[in-house]
Sequence to fold (576 residues):
Amino acid sequence: MIQVEGLTKRYARQVAVDNISFEVNQGEIVGFLGPNGAGKTTTMRVLTCYMPPTAGSAKVAGFDVYESPMEVKRRIGYLPETPPLYPEMEVGDYLKFVAKLKRVPSGDVNRRVDEVAERCSIADVKDRLISKLSKGYRQRVGLAQAIIHNPEVLILDEPTSGLDPKQIIETRELIKGLAGDHTIILSTHILPEVEAICQKVIIINKGKLVATDSVDNLTHRMHGSDASVVVVDTAGQADSTAVQQRLEQVSGVSKVLGRHVEDSGFTYEVESLAGRDVRADIARVIVQSGWNLHELKSVSFSLEEVFLELTGGQAPQEGAE
Amino acid sequence: MRNIWTICRRELYSYFVSPVAWVILAIFAILSGFFTFAVTTSFLRYALQSQMQGGGGPMNVNEQAISPLLSNIAVIAIFFLPMIGMRLFAEEKRQGTFELLATSPISDPQIVIGKWLAALALYGAMLLVLLLDCSFFFIYGNPDWKPFVTGFFGLLLQGGCLLAFAAFISSTTKNQIVAGAAGFGLALLLWVLNWVSSFGNSDFLQVLSYLSILSHYDSFARGVIDSKDLIFYCSMIFLGLFLTTRSLESVRWRA
Ligand SMILES: Nc1ncnc2c1ncn2[C@@H]1O[C@H](COP(=O)(O)OP(=O)(O)O)[C@@H](O)[C@H]1O
Ligand SMILES: [Mg+2]
Fold:
């Protein structure tokens, strides 16, 4: 449904999106995850034909955003970071205006307005001025305008930012409810949001694509475990199973896998519970047993580092690749 | 066509639901009423004088009352039109609704023309107020209606020009006040340009004074539609709207 290839967007002073490629299939809900300034909004603005790409291409429903923007625009519903609302208008009038703007046939306008108002639970405020609405209601009006022409693709830029927890849950439910009929891309800088709504995640950071994966895989990696590689030389004092048993007793260790058994030493992969650094304990245990510790290093998953960086951790820069 | 109408209607909705349009209309009603009164009074005094002095030429309501009135209105319009035009795009950009328009299946020229027409319609409403004032002349006098019609037509054309440029200025900023001030400055400049013709006779000064927006109005106020002036106004309108469209395009490239 959406194909992005080598997409690059350069602003006057910086490259906001750098050569990213991804695909979204029909009916998927995809989370676009990245910290502030990652280039999420920029990518979405290219997809919605708000602005042309500097290089590369993007196709929506088979139409290129640069070559046939009108075709793309007809098929896309877009909720920008700030809902595009006219404060001086009444909700119902506003939705009618958007319906006409999106080329809903005149005869269907009123029916569509009623339908989306029902769906987004804003039917009770249809006669209210938009300036008088609460933030949660505004967001729902924003969603309503995005789906008014029943678009094939929905693009939602941080749909829950700035809402209170109750409104966040309501909005997420609403988006999930829309899933069946539309292909949805939503951006967020919050990982749990992706877990709550999406099937697939695209992670970008500093304009570069970091990973695309299914949410199941991602959460498995995120919440699964850390791993370290240990190389121990017992100088013949103990066999490899004994060492393995000893390692398994270290607190925080969930699993020990023997890798190689050689004269120079035994190699193990030690998995530990997420967030526990067991290296110091392992080192102590080995030294106390009178063995030699040849090597001890943590092998973190790249996604883990990405996640740390995304959430403001201090993972090293190179780890983002 | 339907797209232009959609944009135009929403714009008018915003004008009239907010106090903007009503305040502008009210102030204009007071001013135009005052000017009508002033022209009429001076016309009557003049008429009385010439009668007492025994004749003189025949008095002409068109030449001595309506034409000066319309010329005055053309000047007042220079103050009002930037106020009408300043919000057209600056407001959309500020509140983020431009993103809605720009991602809808509607072309930039359609957006520009729709908004310009709405602003022009508001100016038309102001001229209707003036028309009410002027009905006075028709009730108590017997003026020639032709200069009257051309005068109003000329006012609309001149308004269309200034609104097209106000729209352009509005499309370059997010700040309505900045747009209003710059629009007013430009309108003023276009007005006083015809003064430069008194500085000398060089080609450059000729061109500058040709660009003066008011000098092209005189013929309309006198009841003639000079094709030269008509072409001037139409091309200025086209230029203004064209620049606005280009400016929107560049907003998207940079945005
Ligand atoms: N209109 C613009 N002009 C120049 N730079 C911009 C513009 N919009 C965004 N940027 C820059 O591009 C980068 C990506 O921004 P953005 O796409 O808004 O990120 P996100 O939505 O992920 O927070 C940021 O560093 C931002 O400063
Ligand atoms: Mg953003």
